[in-house]
Amino acid sequence: MLRKRVRWIDGHPLARTISKEERNRRLQNLPTATPQQLKQIRDEYKNRRKTQRIKRLIGVGVLGFVVLVMSPLLFKSLDYPSLWRAPDSPQEYHMSTERNMGVQDYINSGFTYESRGNSWLAYTNYKKAVELRPDLEAVRFNYVKQALILATSSRLDPTVAEEVYKEYKRDFPDSDRLKELSVMVGE
């Protein structure tokens, strides 16, 4: 933004961005200023305030327009059909996530669902993360844990959970987390 040069009257700068009180104080300290110069100073001040107000209104208008235009696009690009609630079923979830998610996305959403207490969606997300990266021990642990939780509530076939547990035990025999899983299995 271009600014005009600071003007001097009797050695007092009339700065562009000063408070009203400071402007009045400087004007009172200019006894040699002619009425025409004082009128010019007041007019400049009023014009500057007016342009600031207009710029502010234009900025708010542009921002409001951008928000109005972008919000439908934002809602369409979200994973969930609705911003305020998570999907109720795995089918609704898979229908809503058509975009290609990476391993970290699956881990993050699995952790989110696990913290909300939705074991089924946590299980499906961890399962996809394990399919992409089976070498991640922490993700495999969370996957097995959710499978065992679902098997105990008879929402998942117990043989599937047992098979997943055996694979984890085979791949990570020295894991510290194996004790927690063996307690859940009942070994």
TrEMBL record:
TPR repeats (start-end): 103-136
Keywords: Membrane, TPR repeat, Transmembrane, Transmembrane helix
Transmembrane portions of the chain: 57-75
Cited InterPro entries: TPR-like_helical_dom_sf, TPR_rpt
The protein's name in its UniProt record: Uncharacterized protein
Species assigned in the record: Phaeocystidibacter marisrubri
